[in-house]
Design goal:
single chain, 7 helices
């Protein structure tokens, strides 16, 4: 049991630590990061229940609906909802890169709990593939969501557009990911290039968010200097 729990939890904590340590300015309070991680954990069972009911009732029971609606839309909407109503106006969210920390946090909380349940049911031999695919993909969906929320909070205009993109882009990427897995016979030939693209896109957003935070810090420093 301890081996399974360790194998299930380690990838999520490692990825969260990685994105957390990428924060160059005013590192986020650990307590707030843990809080948002736990919100992600607590999302799993209610979403699984809704998905179970939809599957049992055979509501729009197609690969496309399962991928884009019952998986991507449900999961990404609730993560987005948590970020908007719990962290978006929080005092700790004080620079653009913070969105990536909190987006990764809620997504990795969700992915970690999902991973625990899966490995308990199916065995620790799946730990490596789970770390490479579901845990990593959730982290990157969260990074992209957080990037656009950071843009929304600290941009002078287009705030609503960025908030919308924070929801719709992760849904589309998540839907494509799930559709490949559930509909393609030789899914491994498609999912690996898609994961490479997802990592490239996620790291591109990390780089951009760090630059935005740098400009934000310089602007605050300049304003502080001029106000003296």
């Amino acid at each position: 049991m301890l081996v399974i729990l360790s194998a299930a939890i380690a990838p999520g904590l490692a990825l969260l630590s990685y994105f957390y340590l990428k924060d160059q300015y005013d590192t986020e309070p650990i307590s707030v990061v843990i809080k948002i991680f736990l919100f992600g954990v607590f999302l799993v069972l209610p979403i699984m229940f809704i998905q179970y009911v939809l599957e049992t009732e055979h509501i729009l029971d197609t690969n496309l609906a399962n991928a884009f609606l019952w998986a991507a839309l449900l999961e990404e909407f609730f993560k987005w909802f948590i970020l908007i109503y719990v962290i978006y106006q929080h005092i700790a969210f004080d620079e653009p890169y913070d969105g990536i920390v909190y987006g990764a946090g809620v997504s990795l909380g969700f992915a970690t709990m999902e991973n625990i349940l899966y490995l308990l049911a199916n065995g620790v031999e799946h730990a490596f593939s789970r770390a490479i695919l579901p845990v990593s993909s959730h982290a990157l969906f969260g990074v992209i969501m957080g990037y656009y929320l950071g843009k929304a909070k600290f941009s002078a205009d287009n705030n609503r557009l960025y908030v919308f993109l924070a929801l719709i882009i992760p849904i589309l990427l998540h839907g494509i990911y799930d559709y490949i897995l559930i509909s393609q016979k030789f899914w491994v030939h498609l999912i690996m290039p898609f994961m490479v693209y997802l990592w490239w896109l996620g790291m591109k957003k990390v780089k951009k968010a760090r630059l935005l935070s740098k400009f934000h810090a310089e602007k605050i420093s300049q304003n502080h200097y001029l106000s003296k």
